[in-house]
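Notes from hallway chat w/ T.B., transcribed later so I don't forget. T.B. wanted the structure written out for a chain they're using in a teaching module, and asked if we could keep both sequence and structure tokens in one place. Agreed to drop them here.
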Amino acid sequence: MREPILKNITFPVSFFPSLRLTNQMNEIEKEFLGMINTHRGIIYKVCHLYGRDKDYKEDLFQEIVFQLWKSFPGFRKESLLTTWMYRVALNTAISQFRKDIKKPKKESLTNAEFQIPAISLLHDENENTLLLNQAIQQLTRIEKALIMLYLEEKSYREISDIMGITLSNVGVKLNRIKRKLEQIIKQENYELR
């Protein structure tokens, strides 16, 4: 059995004002940490997609986990847990990008303090994957989110729910993004020769 990556974190009770008993709080924490450990790949993918460098990716990871924790009590289970996590993670990444333009750089906690494996250790990329990732980096923030969900083999319905756009708009946007990526990759391949 795998060792959980987040095991020594405690969360402020102030996020759950209605909970007064320690046992109830411990169960909420356990459920949340289990969710993060099970689906941490979602957070890593969003961080990898939107992160400029290692430090930024680590900061973004922490911010996404924090936002997930803050919104965890409000999760009504009307959608899939992963759909909700993608939505929070993507909204956080896009909001963080906007804030970073206006704010100076923040100090971050280290992954060792949270016992989280480094993002760089999780990616074994071949030449084609690197080329695709370079092309994706040239897309807009919204286009990046859409193509990431598509590459994660999410259905158009799930993408629609996560992104908050219509089902038909998902198809139109994805077709445009695929053509755009094809053009970028063709241009990059031509320049590499």
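Follow-up for T.B.: Residues 167-192 form the longest helix (26 residues). Might be a good example for the class.
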